[in-house]
Amino acid sequence: MSHSANNQNIPRHVAVIMDGNGRWAKKRLMPRVMGHKRGLDTLEEMCRICSNAGVEYLTVFAFSTENWRRPEDEVSFLMGLFLTALEKKVAKMHANGLRVKVIGDRSHFSPAIQKGIVAAEELTKNNPGLTLTVAADYGGKWDIIQAANALIAEGKTQITESDLSTKLMLAEAPEPDLFIRTGGETRISNFMLWQMAYAEFYFTDVLWPDFNETEIYRAFESFTQRERRFGRTSEQLPIEQQRP
Ligand code: IPE
Ligand code: IPE
Ligand code: MG
């Protein structure tokens, strides 16, 4: 099925909680980790679709600070998959002109993963295309704390919103316009807390490995219907933003 962005308001920055991998696999009587493997294919596909649609930033939650609590074998599979993605998928993304970034606390990752992250960011940093940011060992609370600590290290005793914003991960990107969570849960699970202040939320029961072009265009369609008032009244908005 082909889609066109005509008459659709395409968000500049899309943030996604890629949830439902485990349940996708379980439904097929497969080990949970097979869902993660398929989930990586979905991510590649979403990069392509979002690039084509004109999205500038795609930020995905791959591993939360809380996900270390999972069984050891699942965590180690996810780490293996992360390394494979860095070694095998990044070259393709580079060829497609994407910029790849990783946000989160890198210190708990293996030296090989840490090296892979630096190499991926370095290789793709001057690319003109979509910026894919992967949040790994990331937590929204962690992000705010690391920003506050960076300000303290500079000797600040009083801070403003803009001081804090500039120290957050993703400081150089606009805040997310559209937040999508697949997998049926309607919670934020400690993803970007500060940056989500005015994001439009979209929840779907579709499990991440099943998420596809049709489904993301449903999210864009829903986004198009929203009136983003940022505290103002409808009447105050520019005429082109008002709905009939
Ligand atoms: C999301 O899928 C991927 C990660 C958290 C790494 P889940 O693994 O949470 O899948 P469900 O929610 O158990 O189905
Ligand atoms: C959130 O999913 C984190 C990622 C998708 C990486 P979880 O499946 O871990 O979230 P909870 O624990 O159900 O809220
Ligand atoms: Mg889950």
Automatic annotation (TrEMBL):
Transmembrane regions: none
Active site: D19, N67
Gene3D superfamilies the record matches: Decaprenyl diphosphate synthase-like
Gene Ontology cellular component annotations, sorted alphabetically: cytosol
Keyword Chloroplast: no
Classification via PANTHER family: DEHYDRODOLICHYL DIPHOSPHATE SYNTHASE 2, DEHYDRODOLICHYL DIPHOSPHATE SYNTHASE FAMILY MEMBER
Subunit structure and binding partners: Homodimer.
Protein name as annotated: Isoprenyl transferase
Species whose genome carries this gene: Simonsiella muelleri ATCC 29453
